[in-house]
Amino acid sequence: MPTQTKSDPITEGIETATEKVTEFSEKAIENGKKASSVLLDSYEKTALAFVDSYVKAARSTNISWISSVADAQADFAREAAKSYTSAARTLVA
């Protein structure tokens, strides 16, 4: 005679809760990665736009040394922003 196994409602409830928590966690991680990507894109665009406006303002003075200093600072700021966002993207992925 085959033995019947009774289903334990407590065990089933725990298993169901565990599955739901796992699903929720996976969705939360996925959404966090998407949000981080958007945030990094926005940061990079904003930083580059700010640097471009800084250079434009410096060039409007028509003083060569101010333009030269602004260009050097802008180059550094662009590279720093790109490096930062690139490194952050590798951590998020």
Please describe what this structure looks like:
The chain is mainly alpha-helical and 93 residues long. The protein has one domain. It is built from two helices and no strands. The chain has helices at residues 9-59, 64-92. Helix 1 (9-59) packs antiparallel against helix 2 (64-92). The longest helix is centred in the middle third of the chain and has 51 residues, at 9-59. It is rod-shaped. The model has no long low-confidence stretch (mean pLDDT 90).
Task: List its traits.
about 0% strand; 2 helices; mainly alpha; about 90 residues; about 85% helix; rod-shaped; single chain
Summarize the SSE layout with pairings:
Layout: H1 9-59, H2 64-92
Class by alpha and beta content? mainly alpha
Describe the sheet with the most strands. Answer: none
What global shape is seen? rod-shaped
- Span from first to last CA? 55 Å
Give the number of DSSP strands: 0
What is the chain-wise order of helices and strands? HH
